[in-house]
Design a protein that fits this description.
This protein is an alpha+beta fold. The protein is 23% helix and 35% strand. The chain contains 3 helices and 10 strands, in the order αβββββαββββαβ. The strands form 2 sheets. Strands 1-2-3-9-8-7-6-10 form an 8-stranded antiparallel β-sheet, with helices on both faces. Strands 4-5 form a two-stranded antiparallel sheet.
Length: 171
């Protein structure tokens, strides 16, 4: 888990910090048949969920998971208050309480997309929101997922540095 970016989101004081991983090890190399992990961070009374997944289209099976993920991100990026988000070849959106990024991933001749989402749990009331910190945590998690987990051929498509945030859409 990219600790620096996560620490920017969680309050500096309050309830004790705790990290819980559901599924395989967060950042562990992908193993077919295993569900992708979800990491939940809590601290100072706030809860943040970070997850990643790989989606494919399989038209012969009528599975269009990659297209569905793209459509969902396009829709969310148009929501009032949300802003576009990109770094290198990735694209997505950020909001007051989360961010999502997608990037094409090729390996061993298969092409799919990697989706990363970061969000403050809806059951917690965040006193402050930091769209830049959510965007940075999403970008760092996407770098980890493309390089360590799925080992995408195009992992260099995510340069170092901070992601670019667009102007929030009018409410």
């Amino acid at each position: 888990m990219p600790a620096k970016a996560a620490a920017q989101i969680l309050p500096k004081s309050g309830k004790k910090y705790f990290e819980y991983i559901n599924g395989t090890g967060f950042g562990a190399e992908f193993r077919p048949g295993e569900s992708p992990p979800t990491c939940t961070l809590t601290g100072g009374g706030q809860r943040i969920r970070v997850e990643y997944n790989r989606h494919f289209n399989a038209p012969s099976l009528e599975i269009m998971a990659a297209d569905d993920a793209r459509a969902k991100v396009r829709e969310e990026s148009r929501t009032p208050g949300n802003a576009s988000l990109s770094i290198g070849e990735s694209y997505g959106y950020t909001s007051k309480h989360g961010a999502a990024l997608l990037i094409d991933c090729r390996d061993d001749g298969e092409t799919g997309i990697i989706e990363v989402s970061v969000d403050a749990r809806k059951d917690s009331s965040a006193n402050s929101s930091d769209t830049e910190a959510f965007a940075e945590l999403a970008a760092e998690t996407l770098r980890m997922a493309t390089r360590q987990v799925y080992r995408c051929d195009n992992s260099t498509a995510l340069p170092a540095g901070l992601p670019t945030l667009g102007t929030p859409r009018g409410a």
